[in-house]
């Protein structure tokens, strides 16, 4: 009896989670939410010495697994009914590549999405700039933002894994309302 009751509770919890995720995708499709995505897999931590924002050869970049993850994100979004979106990205090559491989539209670099891993003193300024960028999105505009772990953690308090996405309700509350956490595809 206990096992049957536990199984029923687990199935009910799974059903609720799926309903919540369905509602989150609906909010994203309607522009009542944004998708904030940590760039896809790029082996390593931080950036190598000699980092230059204008030279991808000096940066930690996506590997083939990361490029495949980014393509799967694009497929997942299209399957969810999002065939185009306003795509904003960090200027780091691994974020830009993630955004480009999703193939949802023109990728717009946004400095507020840049990593501050090596300069944590800029965290408050960048997080405030990111909030302002989300506030000025047109009502109903579907938006996907590709950034870094430190930026997402500063905004939400959540430490996402590479390629993980968060659907956040608009307007952004303090802290943002997380409608769904989407595992890497």
Automatic annotation (TrEMBL):
This is Histidine phosphatase family protein. It comes from Stutzerimonas stutzeri. The lineage of its organism: Bacteria, Pseudomonadati, Pseudomonadota, Gammaproteobacteria, Pseudomonadales. InterPro entries: His_Pase_superF_clade-1 (IPR013078), His_PPase_superfam (IPR029033). Pfam families: His_Phos_1 (PF00300). It comes from the Bacteria.
């Amino acid at each position: 009896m206990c096992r049957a009751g536990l199984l029923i509770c687990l199935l009910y919890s799974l059903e609720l989670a799926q309903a919540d995720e369905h509602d989150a995708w609906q909010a994203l499709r309607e522009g009542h939410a944004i998708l904030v995505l940590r760039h896809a897999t790029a082996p390593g931590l931080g950036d190598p010495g000699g980092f230059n924002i204008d030279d991808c050869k000096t940066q930690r970049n996506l590997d083939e697994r990361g490029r495949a993850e980014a393509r799967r994100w694009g497929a997942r979004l299209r399957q969810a009914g999002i065939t185009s979106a306003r795509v904003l990205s960090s200027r780091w090559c691994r974020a830009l590549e993630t955004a480009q491989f999703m193939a949802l539209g023109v990728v717009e670099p946004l400095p507020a999405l840049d990593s501050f891993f090596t300069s944590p003193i800029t965290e408050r300024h960048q997080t405030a700039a990111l909030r302002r960028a989300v506030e000025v999105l047109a009502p109903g505009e579907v938006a996907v933002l590709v950034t870094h772990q430190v930026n997402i953690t500063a905004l939400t308090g959540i430490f996402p894994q590479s390629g993980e996405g968060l659907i956040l309700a608009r307007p952004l509350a303090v802290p943002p309302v997380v409608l769904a956490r989407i595992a890497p595809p």
